[in-house]
Specification:
Length: 165
């Protein structure tokens, strides 16, 4: 009699419930979804001077490769402490040609469209997650120019989610 009740119970369950495949994107038991170590860096980052954007860093993730642009004032003057004193309205745009994570942060190599040389910056996230520091590395500086301090970057709230590709 128990077998008959069990068989009847099985027949009353809709057939669709037995044949459903797991929803796409759902986690498989025992497997964790891999998240790119670059994810935290993706988005639009800005640096302000007197309430105006003088530097925009745009980072996109394509597969496991970061790409993007850094747009900044063509002429930047430093104060005696290495902070930004003034920045011109005219902007230049450099392409990110390489991005590498290391213990110090994200090493960005950038290049002007018409230049043969590259510049490098180190981007380091702060504990807040929506702020970072961007530091110039190994660049030629005019004589007498103070060593630049790292620039504070703020992430646009709308850019905190990577765009679907």
């Amino acid at each position: 009699m128990k077998r008959l009740l069990f068989a009847f119970a099985l027949l009353t369950v809709p057939l669709g419930a037995w044949c459903q495949a797991p929803a796409s994107g759902s986690a498989t038991p025992g497997k964790t979804q891999q998240v790119s170590p670059f994810t935290e860096y993706v988005g639009d980052w800005i640096s302000l001077l007197d309430g105006k954007v003088w530097l925009l860093l745009q980072i996109e993730l394509h597969g496991e490769k970061l790409t993007g642009w850094i747009t900044h004032s063509r002429d930047v003057e430093m104060n005696d402490e290495g902070g930004v004193r003034s920045a011109s309205e005219e902007k230049v745009k450099e392409a990110i040609t390489d991005a590498t994570l290391n213990p110090d942060g994200l090493l960005l190599t950038v290049k002007f469209a018409d230049a043969r040389t590259t510049d490098q910056y180190m981007m380091r996230l702060t504990a807040a997650g929506n702020e970072a520091e961007l530091k110039m590395l190994a660049m030629d500086m005019p004589p007498g120019m103070p060593k630049p301090k790292p620039w504070t970057l703020m992430k646009f709230p709308a850019s905190s989610e990577p765009a679907p590709h």
